[in-house]
Fold this protein.
Amino acid sequence: MLDVLNEISNTSNANPSAPESQSLFEYDMLQMYMNTSDYHVTDKIAIHQPTIGEITQYGEKDFFRMTAALCANPTSLRLELWDLGIDWNKITEFQLFTMVAPQWEQKQTEILFGDLDFQKFKLTTKENSDDLVMVYLPDISIQIDELVYLQIVDYLRFMFNIHPKVERAKGKTTKEFIIEGDRMDKAAQERLERMHPEKRDSGVLFRLISSAVNHPGFKYKKNELIDVGIVEFLDSVNRLRLYEQCTSVMKGIYSGFVDTKGMNIQKETDWTQDMYSGD
């Protein structure tokens, strides 16, 4: 299963540059933006929102590989699961999490979960039930069942805008066709990186920071970003993008180059609008 983790960052749909409203739960955006406290899933499980400085020290690619692993779904890892003899259509996201999370050491996940050590969880079933539950052996009162898992993964996915696609298939032939396609895509990507190492991804966060600090409307200096939470930074980048978009629309309207028929002018020119409602 360790080999599976090496591929997660390439197979998961992680794009922290564009907010989407696909959350199962509701969050206080002001609290996330201000980042004054950790998010408590339970009274004993909390998620820390890292700062740009903390992610930089951790290493951007390693950090997002780890977060993508914890946020992965069976479709993200269908090739690796298939090679392990597991049909991705027949495994739940929680079951996958119980396999993936314990592969990460506490020192690797402490940037998000502090002292919590996923390698010390034991997978069992609830009393008088077949439902799976992860029990923390140092403190059996700390447990992760499917509901707690959903709260953990939903918060992480919302914070980093990681929304892995879900694709299911029926019939052995169809499944094998899809797997073979994934295998060919993986081989082609590896071949491209070997032949053209200069084309390897420099990192989404790096590109966003580089773009933002060179934009005249961005208020932070490079050294000031160290203490800025990832939610605040991504919000600032996307608010700038929305501002530029609304400004372009306004200029187009006043110059007569934009057809306003059927357009909600107030919304299309309001750069203070809600970016998270999904409306």
Remarks:
- The longest strand covers residues 121-125.
- The two ends are 40 Å apart (CA to CA).
- Residues 2-168 form one domain.
